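Course exercise 7: structure representation. Students receive a sequence record and must write out the corresponding structure in token form. The form below is the worked example handed out in class, using Amino acid synthesis family protein (190 residues). Read each field label carefully; the graders check that inputs and outputs are placed in the correct fields and that the protein name is recorded exactly as given.

STUDENT ID: A-19
EXERCISE PROTEIN: Amino acid synthesis family protein
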Amino acid sequence: MDIRKIVTIRERSFMEGGVHLQRQVGKIAVMAVVRDPHPGTYVEDVQAYIDFGHELGCRLTGIAVEEFGREQIESFGKGAVVGADCELEHGAAMNHVRFGNAIRTTLGYPCKTIIPSTITRGGPGAVLTVPLVHREANLVRSHFDAMTVQIPDAPAGDEIVVVAAFGCGGRPLSRLGGLSKDDIVGDGIR
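STUDENT ANSWER:
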């Protein structure tokens, strides 16, 4: 499959609600615009999409690690926007299992939680809000977050935008209580 381009959106927060932040808080999304080789066509075997998802997971996560630093990444999420002529299942196949496992492997530390995902259909400039959770435990409330992304010229009708998103520091002024990242045991659920 062909990648037309890779787009990175990086943000750092210095202030929230009028309060200057005392710790580093930020997010990064790395997105690949991929040409779907079978737009408008039903394909029974989606293994090629699944396999390509592994390559994308390694590549997109590698870019995030270079930009943000491996140790800084505390949360993650993923998503896809399929173009009008593409099947949702093609985006899902690229986004699940091998893509997620590649993210975990490339990060290089224990990531015990399910990586949340969202997949939708849209045209150029479609907005996607990617959910984020703590990499080691879903129940760390300080890291219940999201990152909204958009590429003005993608996806075209025959394209799929595949997104890997990461956060450091959780929400800027989190104070909901619950499990803290310092109190995680196992997967934080049992």
